[in-house]
Amino acid sequence: MKTFKGIPVSPGVATAKALVLRGQDFFSVPKVEIRSEDIPKEIVRFEESLTKTRSDLFNVRKKIAQDLGHEHSDIFSAHLLILEDRTLIEDVLSKIKSERVSAEYAFSLVIQRYFHAFAQINDDYLKERVADIRDVGRRILLNLRGEKADSLVHLKEDIIVIAHDLSPSETATMDREHVIAFATDIGGPTSHTAIMARSMEIAAVVGLGRISKEVSNGQMVIIDGNHGIAIVGPDPQTIERYASEEKRFVELITELDKLKSLAAETLDGHKLQLTANIEFPDEIPSVIAHGAEGIGLYRTEYFYMNRTDLPSEEEQFNAYRHVAEQLVPQPVVIRTLDLGGDKFLSSLDLPREMNPFMGWRAIRFCLTRVDIFKTQLRAILRASVHGNLKLMYPMVSNLLELKKANQILEEARNELRAEHKPFDEKMEIGAMIEIPSAALTSDVLAREVDFFSIGTNDLIQYSLAVDRVNEKIAYLYEPAHPAILKLIQHTIQNAKKAKIWISVCGEMGGDPAMALLLLGFGINQLSMSSFALPKVKKAIRSVTFKQAREIAARSLEFSTGEEIKKFAEAKLKAVTPELVGD
Amino acid sequence: MEHSKVIEKKFVVRSELGLHARPAALFVRTANRFQSDITVQKGRQKVNGKSIMGIMMLAAGPGSSITVRVVGPDAQRAMAEIEKLMDNKMNQ
């Protein structure tokens, strides 16, 4: 039994046999020499494999467009260009002719030269394109060999897919009935594997290091997508333990599912709005399925990632409009571009900073790159007539920034008025409170906006001076630290005084125990990953508002985060024991 | 009457995104509309302007200078299109 730790990117627990996709050594092909009279035959074989691959790709593209929408199928346009590449084709043909080798061998040599060349280019975007080339190359080679390209299309039993990394065409065509989890060596929360797993609603763990090299086909594997663990060759006790965990997970989900259409209301009738955080429009079905009352945080960075040009106003307008229309009449809060920190963009050549989280990012970036900012603001404004949209600025640290941002917004409004383009004049504008200076001066900031949204992840990081990504100091990252609770309480009080509404959109809101405290402090809305929503709703429906207020007030009497955390968890367990212990 | 012409021009990649992916794809699509041979050179590296792999391998970032050489009967028209592309579309 061997345990691997990685990054949990899609929740759930699964136990099944492994199906290992070995992308790496796929391209080492034995050298086969041919007779000179066979050269024309070999060339024809190669050309036929290109034609076949071309029609395969068209089919995949069509299937993906049907299943997942056109945004996903766009990936394959790049594939088609690679397939038609003259240099590549001519290189292969000349190798077949001059070295008298099989098409498979000639092709594998040429494509590996490209892998090698691309790997040495010092550009993240181009490095990522190697995956496209690999994908096309794999298809061509399989067609040359006359093998079926889609080994994952027809499966007889449930399997867990293990790979170094998964390519779009692998995930797109796989048998969704039988693939019940993913585990990959590399990747992060925004990698293709993670996104696909979430949209397929199956468990996934990425960044597992060498798992694809240490598992063999058919070996038993457990994937724990809740905790980021993969266990290879588990012993019977472990299998049993996970089976009961899986059962409990399923039972709890079924139980929570019943709450879907009920309000997030305390026993004494105090209502809270529970909304979801999303990054991609294709998460909307999951948002609706989990009973969210709108979207409290729509991140827009993905528009700017994995591409080399900037998204146009029209492209953004269409996406925002699409999201707004799907949720109407429920609200959608769009966060303006929050790049920097740990979110890097391939399209903008930004300087590397010593201290990126404190550097040129989010609203600071937008206020200097007014061109990029205004394009986004115009797109949001124009989309506002198609639903219940709101917008908020990330990383506000002082009043001046907020005024400047509002001024640019007003310019965008004036431009649209002059162009006779409609927008919602009353669209609500909010500020994110995620820097201690903003929390402490929230009375002043409140005058400029219609709402606040507390981004707890950054607020914790900045208040406690803890880099979220540094493992060595991870123990200092304490959401329940008294300083954090005081900042949150202070901000909520200032929002109430100014008569504006206030939400929490960080991970804290998705923790049922912490949600009780936030409820007690008087928060109006909690926004979280949609998977967390049913549990939080259950917690809220299990207390009275009076109880929650008492819990919140008492929590401030403790001196450490550890004590507060224990206290909140004990209170949660007292009101709803089912939620605790998983 | 059409002569085989050789036209060579230097460009600075003005797009802040460099000559990658989409801009590269545009370049290649444009180049493929013409009969002429088109090569692109950056430093000592020279690639076929009709090949997406070639152009991407140049890794021509923003501000880098490239030399485009067009040889063939429709060289003039091809170069005119490429100039337009380098001035406009890639600059977005």
Radius of gyration of chain A: 26 Å
Q: Given the C-alpha coordinates, what overall shape of chain A results?
A: globular
CATH-level-2 architecture of chain B = 2-Layer Sandwich
Sheet with most strands: strand arrangement of chain B: 1-4-2-3
How far the N terminus sits from the C terminus of chain A, by CA atoms, comes to 23 Å
What's the CATH H-level homologous superfamily of the largest domain in chain A?
Answer: Phosphoenolpyruvate-binding domains
Mean pLDDT of chain B: 82
CATH architecture call of the largest domain in chain A: Alpha-Beta Barrel
For the record, the CATH class of chain B is Alpha Beta
Largest sheet of chain B: 4 strands, antiparallel
> Would you report the number of β strands of chain B?
4
Give the overall shape of chain B, derived from the CA principal axes: globular
Structural class of chain A: alpha/beta
**Helix segment count of chain B?**
3
Strand content of chain B: 25-35%
CATH topology of the largest domain in chain A: TIM Barrel
Total strand segments of chain A: 17
